[in-house]
Every structure is written in structure tokens, then in C-alpha cells.
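Worked Example 4.2. Consider the chain below.
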Amino acid sequence: MARRALARVNLGAIERNVALLKRGLRGGAQLWAVVKAGAYGHGAVPVARAALRGGAGGLAVATAEEAAELRGGGVQAPILVMGAISGEELPVALHAGAELVAWDERFLDQLARSATAPVRIHVKLDTGMGRLGTRELSEALAVAGRALAAGPQLELAGAMTHFATADDDPEYLAVQLDRFTPFVAELRERSPRIVAHAANSAATLREPGSHLDLVRCGIAIYGCDPMHEDPDRHGLEPALELSSYVAAVKLARAGDSAGYGRRFIAPADTWIATLPIGYGDGIRRALSDNCEVLIAGRRYPLVGAVSMDNITVALGARPSVEVGAPAALIGRQGEERQTAEQLARRIGTISYEVLCGISARVPRRYDRDGEPLQ
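Applying the procedure from the previous section yields the following C-alpha cells:
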């Protein structure tokens, strides 16, 4: 049966993307898969398992609740919570056994008071992103020193930073890496076993010198290009297809309109297909009159306004499309393909936002290269 909206996720593609990225790492670096925001809209627990099968050594999320979701789904791998943790969220993170990020001594004091089991700490130096972490090398070293002196409750596990421009400005990436290097060197003198990590997907593909001990790959494991162009350039396989179907086909006479606001008025007799998918499902309203849909292996223009539950597509004067025909917003039909990157460029955003914007009311169906999961 056709589904009004369906996101099909090929976990085999996730596994292969992870394995491909891991093969390209320098010096035996580990790969941890970033599965925050519901694995970028793909589904956190199934994707986490697939990434681990592909060779990921651990997982990274943004929130304590995301770590708890993975544990609740039976995932036992190491999990790093990269975001800020409030006092209210801290018990959730500790119960999940997550590794945490610190950049000030007050947080370490709170941890030492709250932890009932050893907590692994990664100290974050802000080398240029300008968000979380301390800009001051001396403060980062003080935090690391406090963690080392805290006794069995805290364990200094890593040193980290995050690149601001790895996708489009390799020169600034090099500046950030140069700022990070003295921090890592100093910490290694104090604790030789720490893990240094900085690279996101773009840095992993662009700059082998950034691989260090561990890379944190997000968008690339889902088969998207972190440089916002074409996944094929890197041998990546898009894992998600977003589909709907043709629910109605009707003739619009010249002068007839389709959709709210009459944004589309037929210039001549034109057949219009209605697809039961809309911005309530994640099809951005900015795609109104600004998108194509794949039906029967051909591209057709989306016309009129994207509404909450429906979009309309112009089929032309003599359509060969019937009610019930499958339609793809992201994915492939025959020789035609539409990627998340292509949709993102149309509305001036990035594939991350397109994927994360696919709403919870769209069912996710998981398979491995077309074979349903057991």
C-alpha cells in the first residue's frame, strides 16, 4: 500500500559510508558516528547500530536525552554528549553512562558532587568556533588539571575542539588546528592516554592532518556531501529516500489555480497531480514553485504553494501519470535522482536542515539494500 509520506532508510548505505570513511583515516584514528537530532532525521537507534556494524568505535550526540534514548534502545557503545549539560539534565547523562564535555571548573565541581561512578571528561578548547569551550589555553589546562586531580570520580579522557569552516575555508581550519596542537601536546605530557579529536565530516574528507586520534563524522555517514555539492564526489551513498504518491489527477483549465493564494494559475490547459505530503512532513514552504518531483522516472515541477498536508505538481497537457503512482522528493527513480543537497540549494540552506526537518509524522522504514530487516 502507498504511504502518504514515507522515509525509507537503507542501513546498508550507512554501514558502507562508515566503512569508507574509516578506511580513509590516517594513523589508525577511530571514527565516532554523530547521531544527534534523531541521527539527522534518520532515526537514532537503528542508525547507531548500523554505524557500529560499519566500524564506528563510538557515538556522539548533543543532549543527555539523546544518550538516554540510545541506551534505552539497547546500544552499549561509548557515547559522548557534546553539548552543554544543565543541572537538571546531568542525572540523565550520568545514568546513561555518557562521556561529557567540560570547559570550566564549576562544572567539574558539580560533576564530582553528583557522580556515583567514574565519568570520562573531554576538555574543549574553543579555537575559533566561538560557541562552547573556553578560548583561553590556560583555563582549558586548568580544567584538565582539576579533572586529573579529582580522584576516581573523574577521568580525563580527551581533548577536543570543533572546526568552524572545514566545509569552505581550509585556511581557517589550519589556523584552528595550529591553536589546538599546543593544548594537545601539554595534555599528553600530563596524561599520555588522552584522545585528541577535532575533525567533523568535512575535515575528515578534506584534511588528513586533522584526523588525530578520533574523528566525529555526522553528515557524511548519511551519504551527504559536507561540502554541499554531490555525494558521488566522495563515493558516499545517500541513505534516505523521501517519497509520497499521486493521490489525485485533475485538469486545470487555462486560468484555473492550484493551492493557497492562487500562486499558480494555469497558463494553458494543464493536468495537476496532488501529492499528500507538505510542510507538516518537512517539505519546506520555500519550495513553493521552486522544486521538482520524480514521478514515473521523470521530473515534474512543483507548482503553487506547499501546504501543510499537500503539494501540487504540473504534469503537462498530456500526462502519462496515474493515481497511485509513486513519487520521490529525495531519492532516485530510473535515471533521475534528487538529493538533499539539490533541495537545500534551492532554498539557500544545507542538507542537514532538509534532513532534520523531516517531521516525526513521516514513518521511517528500515531495510538493508532493499531487504526488510528481520
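The chain has a mean pLDDT of 96. The chain is about 30% helix and 25% strand. Compare this with Example 4.1 before moving on.
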